[in-house]
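ugh ok fine here u go
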Amino acid sequence: MFPGQSVTIESQNYPDRYPSNYECKWVFQVTSTTSRISISCSDFNLKNCKKSSVEIEGGKVKRRYCGRQNKVAVKSSGNTMTITFATTWSKKRGTGFSCQVFSSEVVDSAITASTLTSPSSSSLASATTQSLTTLTAGEKSCQPCGTKNLVTRIVGGEQTEVNEYPWQVAIVVGGTNQVFCGGSLLNSGVVLTTASCVIKIKESQRVTEVLLGAHDLKNPSSAQQRISVYWGGHFPEFNPKTFDHDVGVLWLTNNADLSEAVKPACLPDANRDYSGYDAIVTGWGSLREGGPSATVLHEVVVPTMNSSVCNDYYGGPVTENMLCAGYDEGGKDACSGDSGGPLVVQDNGRWVLVGITSWGFGCGRPNFPGVYMKVSNYVDSLLTVMTGYGENNLCKGFTRTTTTTMQTTPIRTTTLPPITGGCRCGRRNAGTRIVGGVSTRVHEYPWQVGLTIRYLKRPFCGGSIISDEWVLTAAHCVRGSTASNLIVIIGEHNWGTTSETSQMSRKNVILIIIHPNYDTRNQNNDIALLQLATPIAFSSDNKIAPVCLPKKQNPYEHVDAIVTGWGTTASGGKQTYELHEVVVPTISNSECRKSYGNYITGNMICAGLLEGGKDSCQGDSGGPMVTGSDSAGNVMIQIGVVSWGYGCGYSNYPGVYTRVANYISWISEKTSGSRSCPRL
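structure:
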């Protein structure tokens, strides 16, 4: 902590009842030895002093608090403080506490950074420690890993209780509850599964989502979260024939909301042998060999054994990276659809993830136990992945190994060659125009796309294809949207009918990137990128093709530009079914400021007639403004993204567009690895 810094810590679920059988620890330290740390609690209500307490230790000062307290105030005798909140089994639970931790200010030029004392692996065996580098003022306390939500069990049954295993993940086909693999949540943004499942996702070329907090797939609860998969990787050493190194990870497009129903699994101690334990495997897989998949999460208890014993059963293919579990007589096992899911054991009061469901001969056959990947061999690599992505990186205190370094192979390759075969960017498909009309010809602007949401046809914004995987649009169009709900319509002309084109298709989105400096107050940096779940296949007929991007140095002032979209044809009017276009001249920013003042920044470009009458309008946002790269207009380049303006076609109020030329480096960096078409 910095001198003078304060941090809010709260009990889990505050101000609701805290969980039983729970322990969490905070460790604070200030670099200056003359600083002191104080804690003051404005609300403190722990019931049953024999079961629940908060222990505060700071130098020579030690205090224990429980029950209802009107005042909790402790000051350390040194520059460190440890606060431990622990509960055991008890039906009597209070609302917990909310406390301020702050350090005294001192004059000490040596104080330059905050530090954290690292707990030992033995202390983590009985407590979950939150890294204070992730705690800021007002942030809630750590979400503990590896704690089951236990209630009375169904005698002899195999169904789990609702959210009993809150780290369990269902990997499903996008938009469905069709589970094809399982997984385990490691932190808010990373899921552990098998390499086989990652490859299955890659080969399917379909949008993949994960279900968190799921139990009954036919009757989703309010705790269930559905998040799209952004990226995936596995160890390059993975052998699809022997299933050695069958370990993969998935990165989520959005961080999960951690709660009692959704929380991460604990990683195991890398130096511990977890053979000889009673382990639990969970999943929605088949309940018998060749049978249907379960719709409710099931569990089975199986004893673990080391790889050498398991190798005797299988006659050779079991490696040191594998852990087996099952009975000689069979009858209990994981099965089809459970792959990638967790195998957990109880270790000093916590449930730790010791295995990943990988392979086996049949399901529950005698003398053929299930084979799981031994997670303890991959702790170091997984911690590195967790540190670099997602939040609430827990269980970092375990001993690391250096057996293998995780070098992820992405689902989407980043080394594709340029597209060849007649495809060109920025080529209009010109033809005989409707005299005096404003409708475009079908596929005249083959880069134009519409944005809509799942199950709807009408586009609410526009965009443009810039490569086989990426669409350019406005930030205000997608701000607050989730990738899983967004659809990109390509090859469309009249969204009210399907008879005019056979090229129309609807593409799922797996990633939304809004410019980090987007300002909602004046729409500065109003630009965003959408990554498609499956690449666009460009063809030589040019009916679907990317637009060309402009040069950085050209201001593109006083050029005739074309704006296209399905927006309204008048301010407050009805949205058009057919794609429309309008030709408007660009003006300098100094001219535009005469109308809008200092709202116009260097990242904007204006276009329109002083007398008005021609402009983009509602529904055109995010769409392209293009101009010819030469006097003949053979190649069209996108110089603007439809952003904002006062009304539609009002005199002395031109349309305002995001200046694409200012973002070439940003676009290039974010879309690296995708393929576009050459200009010539």
